[in-house]
Every structure is written in structure tokens, then in C-alpha cells.
């Protein structure tokens, strides 16, 4: 159950961070307006809090592992929001990142 909770929190953090950055991008680069930017800032702030609910108490470990989730989430977001099509090297890279997440977060420790 702890792994499932942790993975759910990583997914929520990815939506908040990637979504927040995307909203800022849309507001500024795509000229959609200040409300998009404000929504992005709120989402980015929420991301900062989500990480604090991870079961592991080590900030560095959580953020290092989240890096792999961020890579996978960014490609997924691009596929959904921008119709980006990853190539095989993108997919290999994501697989390596997610393997790193598994090792960092869920390897048995004494």
C-alpha cells in the first residue's frame, strides 16, 4: 500500500508541476492571459506541497526519484496536450528513468 500511495503522490506531483509550467507557458508564450499564468503559479505551489506527503522522509531521495517521474510525465503531457510523438530513444530514456525511480524509492534497505 505504501508503494501505491507513493506512486499516486508522484503522479499528482507531476500533474501539478507539469500542468503548472504548461499553464504559465500558455499564458506567456501563447498570449492566453494573466489568469493562465496565475493558475500555473498556483499549480506549481501545490506541487511543492504534494512532495511533503511522500512516505519517505528524505527530501533528496524524493526529489531525485521525482526527476524520473517528471521525465515520463513530460513526454506523456506532450503527447496529450501538444500531439508530440516520442521516438524509440525517448521511450528508452523514459524506461531508464522509471527504472531509476524504482531503484531509488523502492529498493529494499536495511
Description:
The protein has 110 residues and is mainly α. The protein is built from four helices and no strands. Helix 3 packs antiparallel against helix 4. The longest helix is centred in the first third of the chain and has 27 residues. It is flat and about 50 Å long. The protein starts with a helix and ends with a helix. The model has no long low-confidence stretch (mean pLDDT 95).
Number of strands: 0
Summing up helix and strand content along with how strands pair, one would put the structural category as mainly alpha
The major sheet is characterized as: none
Number of helices: 4
Query: Which range does the strand content fall in?
Result: under 5%
Query: Helix coverage percent of residues?
Result: over 70%
Query: Could you tell me how far the N terminus lies from the C terminus, measured between alpha carbons in angstroms?
Result: 19 Å
Morphology call: flat
Specify Rg, calculated over alpha carbons.
Answer: 15 Å
Observed structural traits:
110 residues; mainly alpha; 4 helices; 78% helix; flat
Topology:
Layout: H1 2-28, H2 34-50, H3 59-81, H4 88-106
Helix pairs in contact: 1-2, 1-3, 3-4
Quick overview:
Helices cover 78% and strands 0% of the residues. The protein is mainly alpha-helical and 110 residues long.
